[in-house]
Write a structure and sequence with these properties.
about 290 residues, alpha/beta, Rossmann fold, 2 domains, seven-stranded parallel β-sheet, about 15% strand
Length: about 290
Amino acid sequence: MKLSSQTAIITGASQGLGKAIAKEFLSQGSNVVLCARDAGCLEETRAELAPLGGRVLARACDVSSESQVADLIEFSLNELGRLDALVCNAGIYGPMGPTDEVDLQEWIRAIEINLFGTLIPCRAIIPHFKRIGRGKIVMVSGGGATNPLPNISSYAASKAALVRLMETLAEELREHHIDVNAIAPGALKTRLIDQVLTAGPEKTSPAFYAMNKKWAEDGGTPLELGASLCAYLASAESDGITGKLISAKWDPWARLHEYRKELAGSDIYCLRRIVPEDRGQNWSEA
């Protein structure tokens, strides 16, 4: 098992992808601490997963609250003794509609949950990882980081910022043997798709609505694919792979350890600016 006797905190773990990640980690031998805002839903998930083996703990927590996250880390360390991995999965779409028309406070709240709700748990757990000389951080990003999403701008902006945060932390923490990566789990049939369908094409855009309708009908990308990628990135098998945004659906991630040398110091699986020369154009002499 990839994660035998390891321990991990998984945020946004009461349902959807977070729940699937917790299930995969347990199947790979890890103990897990489940974190979400809804204490009732969280306890239901904990009870459902408990028979799968390993220790399954749960703690209600708003990941955008520094004090609540500090309590989460303290609780986890007191109960489990150490932490080996953090999976930052908690996230929301935020308001849908033209950026100049949506509620500004809802827009800001999406940034707080998606970006600050990743930064704050990372800041809280990094000192522990530094003390033990190792650690794994996996952030859940998505298509919003690599493509414009008209009418869902807070989600797109926060996910793009999350990837640059990941790349920066990876460089800061490389010498401490703390690997930091992000995943794009694919189009998942979760409550986020339901939110798009409820909002309708007028608020989200006809093209994005049509894509979500198709994903809802055909099932989208299996949750288990992204969950397995998270387990791989939390395992020793992926040691030294850091600073990458990896697609669960499109990238050959199960064999990435075979390409450690090629990945090290390269901009493969990174967000970068494209210049004319990258597209065969030479404008400097025009």
